[in-house]
């Protein structure tokens, strides 16, 4: 399997996990965030497929600002503090997938020898980094909902590039 096929499969796996998690989401806000992440993974897959076919890659921003808004709204939702920790494994898996994706795209960025590939991998690294931050926030929320409501801060760092 070449790195294009591997990347495409990674994005499909992440999308499927987020959709599965959204089906079981205990709070509507969490469901929204997970579906936004799934849609971002679809866009990543399409961009990689375009690069694989040597087509002009359409670089699109992810949904960082929308996700930030949903997190802000969720902090006001009393149902957050009643979240069950039964699905912690899925949230941990999501963090692991995003970390692996980030590491993989960093490696591909360093090895890329054409500007189009470098540009795509740079965007994917930023978006995977943001997804990692998002999934870590979700994991914190599921593990410790009371703490999360009181302490979590969630802000996109560089929304112009995401």
Question: What is the CATH class name?
Answer: Mainly Alpha
Low-confidence stretches: none
Count, helices: 6
The coarse silhouette is elongated
End-to-end separation:
29 Å
Q: Percent range for helical residues? A: over 70%
Present the secondary structure layout.
Layout: H1 3-23, H2 28-52, H3 64-74, H4 88-111, H5 115-143, H6 145-151
Helix pairs in contact: 1-2, 1-4, 2-3, 2-5, 4-5, 5-6
Report on this model:
- With 162 residues, this protein is an all-alpha fold.
- It has one domain (3-151): Ferritin (Up-down Bundle), CATH 1.20.1260.
- 72% of the residues lie in helices and 0% in strands.
- It has 6 helices and no strands.
- It has helices spanning 3-23, 28-52, 64-74, 88-111, 115-143, 145-151.
- Helix 1 runs antiparallel to helix 2, helix 1 packs antiparallel against helix 4 (88-111) and helix 4 runs antiparallel to helix 5.
- The longest helix is centred in the last third of the chain and has 29 residues, at 115-143.
- The mean pLDDT is 79.
Task: Write a brief structural summary.
The protein is an all-alpha fold and 162 residues long. The protein has one domain: Ferritin, core subunit, four-helix bundle (Ferritin, Up-down Bundle), CATH 1.20.1260.10. The protein is 72% helix and 0% strand.
Task: Please name the defining characteristics of this protein.
6 helices; 162 residues; mainly alpha; elongated; Ferritin
């Amino acid at each position: 399997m070449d790195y294009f096929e591997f990347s495409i499969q990674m994005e499909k796996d992440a999308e499927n996990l987020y959709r599965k998690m959204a089906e079981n989401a205990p709070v509507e806000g969490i469901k929204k965030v997970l579906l936004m992440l799934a849609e971002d993974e679809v866009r990543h897959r399409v961009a990689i497929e375009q690069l694989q076919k040597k087509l002009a890659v359409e670089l699109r921003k992810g949904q960082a600002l929308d996700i930030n808004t949903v997190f802000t709204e969720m902090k006001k939702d009393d149902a957050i503090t009643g979240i069950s920790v039964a699905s912690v494994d899925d949230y941990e898996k999501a963090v692991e997938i995003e970390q692996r994706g980030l590491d993989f795209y960093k490696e591909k960025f360093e090895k890329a020898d054409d500007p189009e590939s470098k540009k795509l991998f740079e965007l994917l690294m930023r978006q995977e980094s943001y997804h990692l931050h998002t999934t870590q926030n979700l994991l914190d929320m599921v593990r410790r909902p009371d703490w999360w409501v009181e302490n979590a801060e969630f802000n996109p760092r560089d929304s112009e590039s995401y």
